[in-house]
Amino acid sequence: MKLALALFLLLTTIGCDRVTKHIATTQLRDQPSRSWLGGTVELEYAENRGAFLSMGSRLPEWASILVFRVGVGIALAALAFVALKYRWTGAALAGAVFIFAGGISNLFDRTLHGSVVDFMSIGIGPLRTGIFNVADAGILLGGVLIAFRESFQRSQT
């Protein structure tokens, strides 16, 4: 059951990310941004060569490959190894799966295209997130789930 749920989360996260990036590319590229709910949700096409908030987007090509392809690949392999070795369950396993799925989907884009398609931001007034995608949301959710599990375990001891 645990394996089936992990596989379901993995495939749905990657699938949602791939589909929404395709829609963003076909519907938002070379178009003005679109907003809903008084600007709370904005859709805008962007290609990101860097990481979160475009950090590292100005790195030379060799450094970008080293950090965003090789480094991320090693980090994802290490995460999978640790989660499997220590037989993570519950929130920790779900968190690891979300991080792995988001990371793999973005790594796929970086390997094929050299950049990642980002397309949405949320905020109120001048307080806005950076532009992100479903894979990024999965990575963030995964980190929150793992942190939640860790803080809960520490409070139990």
Q: Can you describe what's shown?
A:
- This protein is α+β, with helices and mostly antiparallel strands and 157 residues long.
- The chain has one domain (2-156).
- Helix content is 62%, strand content 14%.
- It contains four helices and four strands; from the N terminus they run αββααββα.
- It has a four-stranded antiparallel β-sheet.
- Strand 3 (116-124) and strand 4 (127-128) form a beta hairpin.
- Helix 2 (61-85) packs antiparallel against helix 3 (90-113).
- The longest helix has 26 residues, at 2-27.
- The protein is globular.
- The two termini are 28 Å apart.
- The relative contact order is 0.17.
- The mean pLDDT is 95.
What is the arithmetic mean of pLDDT? Answer: 95
**How many H/I helices?**
4
Low-confidence stretches: none
| Biggest β-sheet strands, sense, barrel | 4 strands, antiparallel
As for the number of domains, it is 1
User: What is the N-to-C succession of helices and strands?
Assistant: HEEHHEEH
Taking Cα atoms only, what radius of gyration do you get, to the nearest Å?
Answer: 17 Å
Head-to-tail CA distance between termini: 28 Å
- In total, the number of strands is 4
Structural class from helices and strands? alpha+beta
